[in-house]
Amino acid sequence: MKKVFFAAIAIACAGYTNAQTGTEAATAIGKVETTADDQQKTPIKVEDLPALVKKSLASEAYAEWTAESAFWIDGANPHYEINLTKGNNKTVAHLDKEGNTVKL
Fold it and tell me: CA dist 54 to 42, 48, 69, 78, Å?
C-alpha cells in the first residue's frame, strides 16, 4: 500500500513540474500584447536592443542601472520600453530607436 501511495505522489509531482515548465516556456517565447491605447507591446531581449539604445543605457544617466527586460512599443509613438533595476529600486526608460528619451 505504501508503494502505491508514494507512486501516486511521484506521478502527481511529475505532472505539476511538467505543467510549470510548460508555463515558463510559453512565457519565454513572448507574446505581443495590445495596450489600452491600441499600441502593441512586443518583448525583445536586452542584448538585441539597437546600438544607439545600448549606448544611451551605458551613459551617465543610466550607468548604475541594470536593464532587466525590454519591449518594443509600436503605435502612434513607437519606442523601446526598458525595465531597469538598481538594488531594490526599479524604473522604466522609454527610448526611441536613436536612444533619445521619449516623453509619454
Answer: 18, 9, 13, 17
What is d(CA 65, CA 85) in angstroms, rounded to the nearest whole number? 5
In this structure, are strands 33-34 and 66-74 parallel, antiparallel, or unpaired?
unpaired
Question: Look-up: residue for cell 522609454?
Answer: 94
**Which of 23-27's residues contact partners 24+ apart within 8 Å by CB, and which partners?**
none
Per-residue pLDDT reduced to its tens digit, 16-44: 444 444 433 333 445 666 655 678 999 99
Amino acid 52 reads L
The answer to whether the beta carbons of residues 41 and 82 sit under 8 Å apart is no
Please give the model's pTM, rounded to 2 decimal places.
0.66
